[in-house]
Design a protein that fits this description.
The complex is a heterodimer. Chain A is mainly alpha-helical. Chain A contains 25 helices and six strands. The longest helix of chain A is centred in the last third of the chain and has 39 residues. The chains are: A mainly alpha, B mainly alpha.
């Protein structure tokens, strides 16, 4: 990190801090506009909403997934724009605002509690948020740390702690207040960064169609591990189908990628965004339907340039890495052996000279190097050595040139990752390697902005969930010193949990953690939320059933059926002694079906059936929810 | 290979992404002046409470 970069970052942090201070002094949060009976400018509103919506998770995590899986991920961009912006603003926005104001609800759990006159729903939904939202915050924090590490040339752990410090400073400086101009500035920086990334990538690769054609032509380079689960190239959807029960391995795995991509990544996040508590509350700070109508314009454009660009550039990074990457460096050693473990799936470790022959036989060769300008104390970089690797030794003090000729996911394989690589590092590596240094700094600001705006709303939601929704609801005391303390304590716990998780679960995790949280929100909250807004018959029993069924079936599926999450959690192994409970006589495709596919329909079914067979809620109460006078106290 | 994509499903979604962005733009422009509502006392009351009870806590 040179002086120029440090100055740019400092200027950014000072500008953000100044705007935050101005906003604090001149009281310009969304609520202030509303108190004054005014509306924030539609562009400010849309940028601020978009910045909350899109985080480092979407850009770094999902961008990296697109680099591995391909452009089929654009289905998520389509849902992000059509469902996350258009449907959310046009269909959900205004009813949410009106009901929230009329019932005097300030958080999502409070809205549920008041709409259904249920303390249980209020506290239960708050607890889901408090315990699970830190998982999403973890994804955002890892996204920041994965980028800071290569840019500052520090280890991932140092990057993580540095990032956590910046976040903590931001929170203490009042970053959670949701000052509109700060959010909008962050949104604007994100937009500029992603537009530059979009244009430079396409122009570097010769234009839109030539870039796509070059990527299409690379389908034979798809790593064998990905081909085995149905990857058919980066400009094609994975192989669709359902493996027959008892089908032999490895044929039985041929449809896994389609189910992971479509059910977990695309649907989990694409639908889950409608049930995001921190985004739902945003609608309550809007003045009118007109403000939402106007903000749709910028909202749609913003999301296109965020996730659309991240996924397109992520996939196209394969062309750059495989055909164009030239690393100016000093080669330290060739044929450095790394061991992927007996099963070939462990994290790579350096093979010592005196290692057993079997370890040496299964080890893979790497090239170790130092980037030009790196100091001796900085850790070595490693890249996989293949027959395609080209090394040109520099003469007369000129640097060596290393051409790895690897696809993106293979390029991400290094010391400490498994042989499958770490897709979370692909976008940071691409930006650092392919684009000018000044852009890497601009992109760092883009990511800082993306992370800050999302994290601030996440920690705001985590804090109010425990302080306002659980503590105040249980103690029946409003806005006391104790509840403020509990809120702040909740934020600290959330931040700490997110940082600890960021240290423990690094590697191919950003997109998965985000998708798990969003899927859980969709299955638990969506039927109660949508039913509450649009269906007068929806009652307390139906909402409770739907939320409990959605939550329990989701967590059960995560812990016992979905192969990846169940193995990661280890609960299934602890109880049943195996990674998942899908019997060998069933199709293995079950193990890659996302919980959402089962839990959301169950949750909807529970809501509809229970609402129809139980007594409707008191008419006066329901009338009140939909704008009528308050029911008389009994 | 339309637009250089191998699979029509990917080509379709590439176009759908652009189309849905255009939908947002057109919808916003067509409805630019629709949906104006006067601020009700309950809206202001909500905003005041949000400021006092929620934002000041953070």
């Amino acid at each position: 990190m040179d002086l120029f970069s440090i100055i740019i970052v400092l200027v950014y942090l000072l500008a953000t801090g100044y705007l935050g201070y101005q906003g604090y002094r001149q009281t310009k949060t969304a609520a202030d506009y509303l108190v004054a009976g005014r509306s924030a400018h539609p562009v400010v509103m849309a940028l601020s909403y978009g910045a909350t919506f899109i985080s480092t998770s979407a850009i770094v995590g999902f961008g990296g997934v697109a680099a591995s899986f391909g452009m089929g991920l654009l289905w998520l961009t389509f849902l992000n724009i059509f469902v996350g912006i258009f449907i959310a603003f046009v269909v959900f926005g205004n009813p949410t605002r009106r009901m929230g104001h009329h019932l005097d609800a300030h958080t999502f759990p409070e809205l549920m509690g008041k709409r259904y006159n249920s303390k249980f729903l209020h506290v239960f939904s708050a607890l889901i948020i408090f315990f699970f939202m830190p998982l999403y915050a973890t994804a955002v924090i890892i996204g920041g740390a994965e980028f800071i590490a290569p840019i500052f040339r520090v280890s991932y752990d140092t990057g993580l702690y540095l990032f956590a410090l910046i976040v903590a400073a931001y929170v203490i400086a009042g970053g959670l207040k949701g000052v509109m101009l700060t959010d909008a500035l962050q949104g604007a920086i994100m937009l500029v960064g992603m537009v530059i990334l979009f244009i430079t990538t396409y122009s570097m690769l010769g234009g839109i169609v030539p870039a796509h054609e070059a990527l299409s032509a690379m389908k034979d380079l798809v790593p064998k591990g990905l081909q085995a689960i149905g990857h058919r190239g980066w400009t094609a959807m994975p192989e669709f189908g359902w493996s027959a029960a008892g089908a032999p391995m490895p044929d039985a795995l041929r449809h896994n990628l389609w189910w992971v991509m479509v059910t977990t990544i695309v649907m989990g996040v694409g639908i889950g965004v409608l049930a995001q508590p921190q985004l739902i509350v945003r609608f309550m700070t809007v003045k009118s339907k007109q403000a939402l109508n106007r903000a749709v314009i910028m909202g749609g454009i913003f999301i296109f340039f965020m996730t659309g660009v991240a996924f397109i550039v992520g996939a196209l990074s394969n062309v750059y890495f495989a055909q164009r990457e030239k690393i100016e460096c000093r080669i330290v050693a060739e044929n450095v052996l790394m061991d992927p473990g007996a099963d070939g799936k462990a994290k790579l470790t350096l093979v010592p000279e005196n290692a057993a022959d079997e370890v040496k036989a299964r080890a893979k060769p790497f090239v170790s190097y130092r980037l030009s300008g790196d100091e001796e104390r900085q850790p070595l970089s490693y890249v996989m050595q293949t027959p395609g690797t080209v090394i040109t030794r520099g003469v007369d003090g000129a640097p060596d040139i290393l051409e790895p000729h690897l696809v993106a996911v293979a390029r991400s394989v290094t010391l400490g990752t498994p042989l499958g690589g770490n897709s979370d590092t692909i976008i940071p590596t691409y930006v650092k390697a392919a684009l000018p240094h000044w852009f890497a700094v601009v992109f760092l600001l883009t990511l800082l902005s993306a992370a800050m705006s999302t994290l601030s709303s996440q920690f705001h939601t985590i804090g109010t969930a425990v302080g306002r929704d659980v503590f105040e609801e249980v103690t029946h005391k409003r806005h006391t010193e104790k509840s403020i303390l509990v809120t702040r304590f909740g934020i600290c716990i959330g931040l700490l949990a997110a940082v600890i998780a960021g240290k423990v679960i690094r590697g191919n995790i950003i997109a998965l953690a985000t998708a798990i949280f969003m899927g859980l929100c969709a299955a638990s909250f969506l039927p109660a939320f949508v039913g509450g807004l649009f269906w007068r018959r929806m009652n307390k029993a139906a909402a409770v059933s739907s939320m409990v069924v959605g939550f329990v079936s989701s967590t059960f599926w995560l812990a016992f059926v979905n192969g990846k999450t169940a193995a990661g959690l280890g609960l299934c192994k602890f109880i049943f002694g195996k990674d998942h409970i899908v019997p060998p006589t069933w199709s293995v495709t079950w193990t890659v079906v996302d919980p959402l596919i089962v839990a959301l329909p169950l949750s909807i079914l529970a809501a509809v059936v229970v609402a129809l067979i139980t007594k409707p809620m008191d008419k006066t109460y329901v009338d009140w929810c939909y704008g009528g006078p308050p029911p008389k106290a009994e | 290979m339309l637009l250089g994509f191998e699979d029509p499903w990917v080509c379709t979604v590439y176009i759908l992404c652009i189309a849905s962005t255009l939908l947002c733009v057109v919808y916003g422009l067509v409805n630019w002046n629709k949906g104006e509502e006067t601020v009700q006392p309950e809206d202001v009351q909500w905003a005041k409470e949000e400021k006092e009870e929620v934002e000041e806590t953070l």
